[in-house]
Design brief:
The structure holds two protein chains of two kinds. By secondary structure, chain A is α+β, with helices and mostly antiparallel strands. Helix content of chain A is about 15%, strand content about 35%. Chain A has one domain: Ubiquitin-like (UB roll) (Roll). In chain A, the strands form two sheets. Chain A has a five-stranded mixed beta sheet, covered by helices on one side. Chain A has a two-stranded antiparallel sheet with strand order 3-4. In chain B, the strands form two sheets. In chain B, strands 3-2-5-6-7-8 form a six-stranded mixed beta sheet. In chain B, helix 3 links the parallel strand 5 and strand 6. In chain B, about 40% of the residues are buried. Classes of the chains: A alpha+beta, B alpha/beta.
Chain lengths: ~90, ~140
């Protein structure tokens, strides 16, 4: 299943400057693995190991069709053909 | 150098004073590539904290959708420090993710919610490297 992934400025070094790229997968996790195969290095910026399994990084927000995936199953969130995935780094600090 | 108009400068300072002792935060959007901060967008500090700020995640998405629709980018990203100087903290540096933005820090430590001057300083933060820059406040009324 093909989805559009919107890439934030800070990660466009991995996509050759592209603002949006396409990804394949039935879950967010699969889409990220697919992104990694076309844009090596990008996964590391999105995902980290937490307590033995992988999870989204604390300060990376991902939305599937405008829903923050933290409320829809995280990396397991299912995606369908034509969905839009948006990646936005948190704007945060101390 | 950051060039900012007086009304926007004053709006940021007023926002920081109003939210003191919690940190205030927001952006000033401007046309893509223009380096001109034009549209002030105060944001809610979802952390409601005197030592941390974070844009609410749904507000963040809306902000970026609006900027996208307007061909804008975040020219200024600002927040306040309420007990320390107007210099990026280690956390600020670690989380800075807009290499094209001017990171503005306002400190309300001197006068809190009251009248009185604040520190207003601007930085570039690229690959964890902080470079302070000059701030030029444009007073259009004075020039006219």
């Amino acid at each position: 299943m093909a989805v559009e992934v919107r890439v934030p400025t800070i990660l466009r070094t991995y996509t050759g400057g592209e603002k949006a790229v396409s990804g394949q997968g039935a879950t967010l996790s699969e889409v990220i693995d697919d992104l990694e195969s076309n844009h090596p290095g990008i996964k590391e910026r999105l995902v980290e190991a937490k307590d033995g399994h992988s999870d989204l990084r604390r300060f990376v927000n991902v939305y599937v069709n405008d829903e923050d995936v933290r409320f829809t199953g995280g990396l397991g969130t299912s995606v369908s053909d034509g969905d839009q995935v948006v990646v936005l780094p948190a704007v945060a600090g101390g | 150098m950051l060039r900012i108009d007086l009304a926007t400068y004053q709006a940021i300072v007023a926002h920081a004073k109003r939210d003191h002792p919690d940190e205030a935060c927001g952006v000033v959007a401007g046309p893509d590539g223009s380096d001109r901060p034009q549209r002030w967008v105060p944001m809610v500090n979802a952390a409601r904290s005197p030592t941390f700020y974070e844009f609410d995640t749904s507000d963040l998405l809306q902000l970026y959708k609006d900027m996208d629709a307007n061909d804008e980018e975040p020219v200024v990203v600002y927040h306040s420090h309420t007990a320390t100087e107007a210099y990026p903290s280690r956390t600020d540096i670690g989380l800075a993710s807009e290499p094209n933005a001017h990171y503005v820090l306002v400190s309300t430590r001197e006068h809190g919610n009251s009248e009185g001057p604040v520190e207003f300083r601007s930085y570039r933060i690229i690959d964890s490297e902080v470079t302070e820059e000059e701030v030029a406040v444009d007073d259009e009324l004075r020039r006219a």
